User: What shape does this take?
Amino acid sequence: MLLVFAIGFAAAAFLVKITLLDNAKDEVGLKARIMMEAARSVRSYTVEEIRPLVSQIKTAEFHSQTVPAYAATENMKRLRQKYPDYTYKEAALNPTNPEHRAASWEEDVIQYFRNYADVEEYIGVRTTPTGQYLFLSRPFRITQEGCLVCHSTPGAAPAGMIKKYGSRNGFGWKLNEVIGAQIVNVPMAVPIARADTTFNIFMIILAIVFVAIWLVLNIFLHLIIIKRVNKIAAKAEEISRGDLAAAEFGQDGKDELSSLGHSLNLMYRSLSSAVKLLDKTQT
Assistant: This one.
């Protein structure tokens, strides 16, 4: 019984651990998607509301605030003031703004989207010196020819943009080409710690329940089975010594042990009758 309980305890621990870790990962994934959608909302707002207003101002000055990537990144920087471990980046292989240049692992993500054009979302977990992070990424493609006006050649780009960022980066983009990826990083430390705490509490409760069940089963086994089996064994031993004056075994009930006691009594009666008959024959 202890072996069965141990196996059940280990199986429960394995299944609960997997379930809690999956739930923690789902929780982190939800946070990452919320961040991603917030950034995309800022981009849409910039294109639909801010850019038309600024375009009405007749000036040769280049306003970074009209660039969706700039607007989304700056908004997420403000979020990081309160949640520094949460990051958003529009990583590119050849960005106009050097701040958006992809790191080595981000280059791998962008290359993945280039190799698999039908994939619209890529999620993974990476380990850093500060802990594990879940990253959620989506490809950034040039789907409108209007974007190429600023990123085809330096000569076609606005003079204000060239003045601010130079003419060496952010050009040569092509239509429908994956030039980068939107990447959100969300820390997994807190959800995993919460999952570990829940796991430990659950296993302690489960251990207490298993011990209680084991004790109750042992008590019932002793009272209902072991005690009665010992009485049957003692009675059988008395009969085996030839004590024909021993009282019959009480077989109240209709369970298997009562049937065994009834069979023992029948054997005892038969044996007594046979011994008495043998004594009469000898006399």
Observations:
- The chain has two domains: 2-187, 209-282.
